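WP5 quarterly update. Target: Putative flagellum biosynthesis repressor protein. Source organism: Azorhizobium caulinodans. Length: 136 aa.
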Amino acid sequence: MSKAMQITLRPGEKIFINGAVLRVDRKVTLELMNDATFLLESHVLQVEDTTTPLRQLYFVIQAILMDPRNAEAARHLFHTQWAALRQAFKNETVLEGLETIATQVIGGRTFDALRTLRGLFVIEDAILAHGGSKAA
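Structure tokens (predicted):
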């Protein structure tokens, strides 16, 4: 039996649960009594923000969570993009992070994969700021 999880949302905030989008009109605390796949609005990346390779990978992983009906297609795209990123990056921290992310996605820990990936954005930003040289 899993432990209940409480999530507090502010007025107008959205939460994505098992593919459904819910928006609250006032401050509310939700208690999830069983395992559910969810994503808070603050962790959702919009398509116009997918301006870097790692952010594009994030968007694909996010789709696995938010659109269960199309999760298998998103998983296929994840593996394709992941393999290309493994070849493109030379930075050891990013490469180690990509390995962790693959393990997390394959193990069904998609939310953890998103958290790991968000931690790599600052490194990717630094690499891109230097034109992809040396740090890549």
